[in-house]
Amino acid sequence: MSVISTIRTSCRDCYKCIRHCPVKAIRISSGHAEVVDERCVKDGRCVLVCPQKAKKVRSDLEEARALLGKGGRVVASIAPSFVTAFPEATPGQVVQGLKMLGFSEVRETAEGAEWVAKEHALLLAEGRTNVISSSCPAVNFLITRYFPKCIEHLAPVVSPMVAHGRLLKKEDPHTRVVFIGPCIAKKAEAEEEEVRGDVDVVLTFEELREWFQEAHLDLATLPEAPFSRRRVRWARAFPVEGGLLQSASFEVHLLSRDVVTITGIDRCKEFLERFSPERYKFRIIEMMSCEGGCIDGPMLSSSLSPYERRERVLLYTEESLEPEESLVCVDPPSFRRAFVPAPVPSPEVPEEELRKILALTGKFTPQDELNCGACGYNTCREKARAVYQGMAEAEMCIPFMRMRAESFSSFLMTVTPNGIVLVDEDLRIVEMNPALRRMLGLAGKLVIGKRIDEFLDPSPFVEVLRTKKATTCEVTYPQYHNLFVRLSVFFLEKSRLLMGIFVDLTKEKEQETMMATIREKTIEKAQQVIANQMRVAQEIASLLGETTAETKVLLNKLMRILRGETLEE
What we know:
Layout: E1 4-6, H1 16-20, E2 26-29, E3 32-35, H2 45-49, E4 55-57, H3 61-69, E5 74-78, H4 82-85, H5 91-101, E6 105-108, H6 110-125, E7 131-132, H7 137-146, H8 160-171, E8 176-181, H9 185-189, E9 201-204, H10 205-214, H11 243-247, E10 259-263, H12 265-274, E11 284-288, H13 306-319, H14 351-359, H15 380-388, H16 398-415, E12 419-423, E13 429-432, H17 434-440, H18 459-467, E14 471-477, E15 483-492, E16 497-504, H19 506-563
Parallel strand pairs: 5-6, 5-8, 7-11, 8-9, 10-11
Antiparallel strand pairs: 1-4, 2-3, 12-13, 12-16, 14-15, 15-16
Helix pairs in contact: 6-8, 7-12, 14-15
Domain 4Fe-4S: 352-414
Pfam families: Fe_hyd_lg_C, Fer4_10, FeS, PAS_9
Keywords: 4Fe-4S, Iron, Iron-sulfur, Metal-binding
């Protein structure tokens, strides 16, 4: 699993992570920002700047708990910046808290930092120049992936975390080491082939604080406990800028021109872009990806200001200073390593392809290229290259998409035969399209800013404003020549506006009325015809009935005469 991942449901197309990523290791896929692991330097800025908390750092708490559950010697190696991460507690209370979690021993990573400083000093003693410190894994990733030509200047020395892991496992090969610090990049460093197995689990200070909370441990109320062993002098100052130089006993003062300390990933990147052995002649270049050093690590949230953090670390270093002979270690392990280049592919983009991509967002000339940075890239052409490489989407151009949306919505508002009005929560008109103005006879009149009740019955709008539910009704406006409409009112949540859509049914209503009149007249005529037909039928029937009766009488008389009967008058 990647060290940094994206919670897709929380990612909202803001592109802030791209703007702050020093190497643009973010891929936009279907509108969501994903960290590309092989491009990422793990500096953690995307995690810090994401306003929706959509970037997630992998938690290794369960793995640490599993180690403790297996028993055996499990040692917590805690970075010296811990004194700033838990300002509410003393160092001894933090140690006690770790022991209560189940760790066999609690040791200071600064033990390893002492040896790392010595290794850097040995490199200089060998006559090497322009040595770039290798204690910050984010800087190491930056160099191996984006500035592989500088690897020859990168000190072939492990970080304090790895050095301490090797020391602890030299003491006892069965030892399991859990490193705890302010850094995200340490999680990725521990998985590198060159150092894999030297440290078993990497936790951040944030994970440790979560662990303390789950265990219901209030550090400020705990008794103090000492570290299991103390073999440290100046290396507790490693988290502040210049800490390596002090630990390696370099003589550094204001006018020192052969050593330099660079903190902040952007400044490190800028230096490496300009770096050349012919141009620079330093003895050592200390690089740290976080501003001011590890005391501003991405997983170190503290109530202390950066200056207070620095003061706290330096005070802790001075108060805990030990004699140099305490650093003696019989048969120490190797603290060297190799760095392998892993350059990120950056294919050249044909100019013709760039122009095609730029044209997708309406950029046909250099004047069309705003270079506003809203998409996260510094220039439109840089973003176009990212689109070509599959790292970005053309639709990320916010000014273009806004212009297109406004143009489309304006076009719809203008050409639609239906009336549209936008009203704010005070029932004041924000916009009214030409169709509604024609319906109400308001063409050319000032309506924007006026209340809707000056022109229309506001009842439907008031009801939707109250319930936030859409409604549809049929309304007649006698004051506008008996205008008859079907009115639909909606509440637009994001803009907090009410939208009314008026469908003119006046002609349909007139036709319906006319048809009803025709139907009534037709029925009336039909009824008259039926009545006349009935009257005629009755008259005919009556006449037929009288004739038949007379005939019957005459025939009867004839029959009686034929039979010889006497007829009475």
